[in-house]
Predict the 3D structure of the following.
Amino acid sequence: MNGDSEDPDLGEPIAQLAELSDEPRPGFLDRVRGSIDRRRLGSQVSGLAWHGLALVLLEFLAMMMTLLVGAYGGSDEKRNQPPTV
C-alpha cells in the first residue's frame, strides 16, 4: 500500500530455489500483495465497526447514568447545570 512500483530487494535466494528454472508469471507479486491488502482492509473495517459499536454503547450508558442521577439523586443546584463528561 506504499505505492512503490519497484520490487524491494528481497536478498539472496535460497540455494535450492535458485536452481528452479520457472519464473512466476507476470503480475504474481501484485496479486499476492492485492490479496494481503484486501485482508488487511477487511480486518481494519471490522475492527473499526466493533470499536465504533463499543463507543456508542458507552455513550448510551453514560447518557442513561446522567439521566438516572438527575432524576433520582443530586441536589437541585446540580439538576439545573448541564452534565459534565
